[in-house]
Design goal:
This protein has two helices and eleven strands, in the order E-E-E-E-E-E-H-E-E-E-E-E-H. It is mainly β and about 190 residues long.
Length: about 190
């Protein structure tokens, strides 16, 4: 059965003053190659909710370490007069390493999925882990380093490629509660055997 493309509103948009919004990302983000995803389990009633991710044999996620506000993530709406509106997802981080292995790793970044843990954990952790690039991957849209600027750090921005924007602003990774979800995300760091 085809999906209706004439979206509207289907829920109240309310504010919970006991849990006001908080900016910021936690100290670690998690990145892996989109092509190495073995399976993704989506909630049947809300396809923006991911309850499990399994990587292929030999694959694993890698840490991107944050210092203060070096990691940023979000999206920008891409409107269209002739197609459904989409979202250009965005992740920015700063790398400190200048050794040859780090340069190689950063030069070759392509088609990634990044999970960012927000400082705002949402209700019981629902919303704490936001997934960017799950549908079409994230690619470098900016990669800059100047020896005398920003302490010589390499600043990398990842976005969806043009015409490959996501149909969702981001996916939420959540299973049961915060602790269960955090364990599932951390498990992605282990090489699948």
């Amino acid at each position: 059965m085809p999906t209706n493309c004439n979206f509207g509103i289907a829920a109240d948009i309310l504010k919970d003053c006991s849990a006001p919004p908080t900016a910021g990302a936690e100290m670690i983000a998690y990145a892996f190659n989109r092509r190495e995803i073995d399976s993704v389990t989506y909630d049947q009633s809300n396809p923006r909710l991911v309850t499990a991710i399994t990587l292929a044999d030999g694959a694993k996620a890698y840490k991107i370490e944050n210092f203060k506000k070096e990691i940023d993530a979000g999206f920008d709406l891409v409107t269209s007069d002739t197609n459904i509106d989409k979202f250009n997802q965005y992740v920015k981080f700063e790398a400190w390493g200048i050794d040859s292995d780090t340069v190689k790793a950063l030069d070759e970044l392509s088609d990634l999925v990044v999970i960012v843990e927000r400082k705002n954990k949402g209700a019981d952790g629902d919303g704490a882990f936001q997934i960017y690039g799950l549908q079409t991957g994230l690619y470098k849209s900016s990669d800059t380093m100047r020896a005398n600027t920003a302490s010589g750090k390499r600043i990398i921005e990842l976005t969806n490629q043009a015409e490959e924007e996501s149909t969702v602003s981001y996916h939420v990774f959540f299973d049961t509660d915060y602790a269960t979800t955090k364990a599932a995300v951390e498990a992605l760091l282990e090489t699948v055997e």
